[in-house]
Amino acid sequence: MYTHVGLEEGDCYNTLQKWCVEEMRESRNNGNKRGKKREEYKEVRKDSDKQMGIIKKGDA
Q1: Predicted model pTM
Q2: Which residue has the higher pLDDT, 36 or 57?
Q3: C-alpha distances in angstroms, 36 versus 6, 21, 32?
């Protein structure tokens, strides 16, 4: 299957429409959480929270 910017089957509801690919690529470039897998989201969220000094109880 053709993939783009690390997209996986199932992302974009199994489509590779241009607007969707662009949206997800942009999301990744912006460090946005949209377009990321949930596990990836959790890790990124932790990292960005640390960088911004937002550490919730239990995350440290």
Answers
A1: 0.23
A2: 57
A3: 10, 12, 8
